[in-house]
Amino acid sequence: MTEWMPLYKELEQYGNSDFYPYHMPGHKRRQLGDIPERILKTDITEIDGFDNLHQAEGILREAQDLANRLYGAEETFYLVNGSTAGILSAISAALPEGGHLLITRGCHKSVYHAAYLRKLKFSYLYPKNVKGFEFSEAVTAGQVQEALRSEPDIGAVLIVSPTYEGRIADVKKIAEIVHEKGIPLIVDEAHGAHLGFAEGFAPGACMAGADIVIHSVHKTLPAMTQTALLHVNGTRVDRDRLKRFLRIYQTSSPSYVLMASISDAMEFLKIDGKRYFADFRDHYLRLLDRLGVCKVLQFVPAEDIFDGRQDIGKLVIGAGNRRDISGQWLYDQLRERYHLQCEMAAGRYCLAMFTVADSSEAYERMEQALLCIDEELFTESGAENVRDEERAMSGTMDESRGKIVLPEVCYPFSAAWDLTWKRERLGDAVGCAVGEFVNLYPPGTPILVPGEVLTQEIYEQILEYLTQKLNLQGLIQEEGEYYIRVLRQ
Ligand SMILES: Cc1ncc(COP(=O)(O)O)c(C=O)c1O
């Protein structure tokens, strides 16, 4: 290959050439099922001229270098198994086996999985709820500082920013605090691959000084599912160890279609990013402004975006003071009546995601649907349920969901997950250590981690969630009865 060409074009050109494939994949570029030949033609493996992800020296090295220049990282790795593979690798490389990791309690399950595999010890950060809503803020610098002071053997910190609902942490300040201790900061920026590309967007964590940053390219950029990036800066994390873990957790046959999709998204950022992101910001802020007339439905105010605390694109649609309305109801209304498919529904809100790839139609349809739903709710409910900023912001929302119940740990998690368990009726399991996660979905925050005790307080919290018909994972339901796995020891 002589002249530089985008990866996808290289694949297309090769697929149309007269080279016959006496190699994997087994479809040999022929359509024998339903997947069109055009897609199969670009699906190759590491053949001559196409480099090797696990030892990139050619076109994949160049493609990764473009990504690190865009994000201001020293080195970047393509991931074909999502941020999941990046988080597993980052944590494994940053700490020795048995090390001590400081995390947000509500972080993604891959963090827990890394801790299990590497037998890590945890300490938790518990961010407060966003005022008037039932979801968490990002962690604060003060919380990190306090935890590092009280637990001197913490060897690495992992924070999530932006969160699923778009809350953004002060990564710069947190990085300074973490680095004062000489330990690495890993930022799970899975929801923030788009940050920093135009005025009005918060800066990305690489620019803010994080040692490792993980991006799901597929979540907020125009890229295919599973595509992600891991960026590394400085010397606090050994790069050879990091590469070793990337080899362990990623497939030895990375999909070139996925890698071409990452490369495509990076080219888009380089060439058209600024213009598209400025448009995206304007569209989104206009939508928020127009939704300001809603009398019942509740949204995170635009001021939070201007203050850099809330991301552009994550539209949280809250039920406000209508206690009889759930996030699932809002989600179902948007889906069934308007054919608007949201990202998720939670207890008292649902979440619609906008990205740089949305057209004006996406904003218009959402605006009309929400204005219409709001008007109906207002007409039927009367003045007493009208949104009242004072009341909403002073935390009249469901306190039970936001309440922090500190765990009582009986066995360390990484050991507990391997211990034998038995099924116990939920009501009879109070006082027992559990053998499986109990999570509240979404976003998946653990109520119980294996090895923790089902206390009376947590039991009552679980009952409350079940009454509210929230999605609790980790319980077994049989003939109207709930069971839980408890450790035999
Ligand atoms: C905060 C966070 N981190 C990491 C992940 C994992 O990302 P991926 O699906 O790219 O593996 C998710 C997925 O939802 C997430 O929400």
What does this structure look like?
The protein has 489 residues and is of the alpha/beta class. It folds into three domains: 7-269, Type I PLP-dependent aspartate aminotransferase-like (Major domain) (Aspartate Aminotransferase, domain 2, 3-Layer(aba) Sandwich), CATH 3.40.640; 274-399, Aspartate Aminotransferase, domain 1 (Alpha-Beta Complex); 405-487, Ornithine Decarboxylase, Chain A, domain 4 (Alpha-Beta Complex). 37% of the residues lie in helices and 15% in strands. It has helices at 7-15, 37-40, 59-71, 82-94, 109-117, 141-150, 171-180, 217-220, 239-249, 256-291, 302-306, 327-338, 360-381, 389-393, 399-402, 413-416, 456-467, and strands at residues 75-79, 100-104, 121-125, 156-160, 185-188, 212-216, 228-232, 314-318, 344-345, 349-353, 421-425, 438-441, 445-448, 471-473, 476-478, 481-487. Strands 1-7-6-5-4-2-3 form a seven-stranded mixed sheet, sandwiched between helices. Strands 8-10-9 form a three-stranded antiparallel sheet. α3 (59-71) packs parallel to α10, α4 crosses α5 and α6 (141-150) runs parallel beside α7 (171-180). The longest helix is centred in the middle third of the chain and has 36 residues, at 256-291. It is globular. The chain starts with 6 loop residues before the first helix and ends with a strand. Residues 390-400 have low confidence and may be disordered. Pyridoxal-5'-phosphate binds next to α4. Residues 82-84, 108, 110, 160, 164, 188, 190-191, 216, 228 line the site of pyridoxal-5'-phosphate.
